[in-house]
Fold this sequence. Notes:
By secondary structure, the chain is of the alpha/beta class. 31% of the residues lie in helices and 20% in strands. A hairpin with a 2-residue loop joins strand 1 and strand 2. It has a six-stranded parallel β-sheet, with helices on both faces. It has a single domain (18-181), classed as HAD superfamily/HAD-like (Rossmann fold), CATH 3.40.50.1000.
Amino acid sequence: xxxxxxxxxxxxxxxxxxxxxxxxxxxxxxxxxxxxxxxxxxxxxxxxxxxxxxxxxxxxxxxxxxxxxxxxxxxxxxxxxxxxxxxxxxxxxxxxxxxxxxxxxxxxxxxxxxxxxxxxxxxxxxxxxxxxxxxxxxxxxxxxxxxxxxxxxxxxxxxxxxxxxxxxxxxxxxxxxxxxxxxxxxxxxx
Length: 190
C-alpha cells in the first residue's frame, strides 16, 4: 500500500506464551505462566525482536488471556509480565484479549480482530506483515488478517490449524531470520 508516496509499515505480530516466553505445559497442553516469577523469556527472543525492529518492522504482541475472564489469573500479575516484556523487548505494543470462546468477541484468536486493531494502530499493512505463533489459533488468526504465518510446532495435544502456516519454525529466532532474509511481499516464504 502506498499513501502519498510513503510505504505503509510492515509488522511482526507475536503470540506471547510459547513465542516470547515459555509456556507451562501440562498433559501436552500449553498454559500461560501464573506469576511474574514463572515468566521466563525464551532463548533468542530479545535478539530477534531487536533485529526485526532495527530492520524497520513494528513488533507487537497479540495474546489471548482468557484466564483473566475466568478468574484464574491475577490482573496485576499479567500487567507485571507485560511491563517486564515492554521494558525488556521494547515492543511497539501489546494487545490482549481477555475473553473466552463463549464470549464470541472479534478479538479472540482465531478471529483476526486483535491483529487488525494492532495493525491499524501501528499503521501496518497486514498483507505485508507476519504472525508468529505456537497454536492453531495464531495461524488461523494471522491467515484471516492477511498476514504470512509462522508456526512454532511444539507438538501440543490439540487440533491442527484449518489452514497451513506459511512456514514451520523452531522458534522466534528462526522466524526472524527468514523474515529478514526474505523482505519481498510474496506469499511464499523461504
